[in-house]
Amino acid sequence: xxxxxxxxxxxxxxxxxxxxxxxxxxxxxxxxxxxxxxxxxxxxxxxxxxxxxxxxxxxxxxxxxxxxxxxxxxxxxxxxxxxxxxxxxxxxxxxxxxxxxxxxxxxxxxxxxxxxxxxxxxxxxxxxxxxxxxxxxxxxxxxxxxxxxxxxxxxxxxxxxxxxxxxxxxxxxxxxxxxxxxxxxxxxxxxxxxxxxxxxxxxxxxxxxxxxxxxxxxx
Length: 219
Fold this sequence. Notes:
Layout (H helix, E strand, L loop, with lengths): L1 H26 L3 H10 L6 H4 L5 H10 L9 H9 L13 H11 L21 H11 L2 H10 L13 H10 L9 H10 L1 H14 L11
């Protein structure tokens, strides 16, 4: 009986320390980081659950509920921090940038697909659809965003507030204009706006191969 109580107390202590660690990481992340984490978790957590997220801790709790995160396995959180380039927080989980990179191929959940090595910008990387969109959003300048919004004006709500690149991509997904197997609207846009980002999308298409749909868009 005494042994059972001791074991229970140890488990409670581990759980408490784990929660304290998550709170510490939560405090180090801003609103833009939370938006990025929500975006990267869209393939793991139902969107209806993510809509109510207000903080990183909310996301951590959803990952715990879905059994993606616990005190014995924090790799997914390390991967997410790595993806949003918060390498300074990795040490709190016992990881380094290099260690996460080593484990991605075997344990990665955000990035299950390997890109073709002929795409030099993705050499030695393993990026998924979600990660590809996030990388695009990080490299779309304000000037590019204005041009993209202009080109897509027929596909966007007539009354709209100023949105970020990430929010624009999410909006296109909600409207069914952008999916894992259909990124043609991005190709049409970047053909006019950014040849470099167009190459990023082309690399993704090449990696995915025959699964793509061909749809005609008029920007």
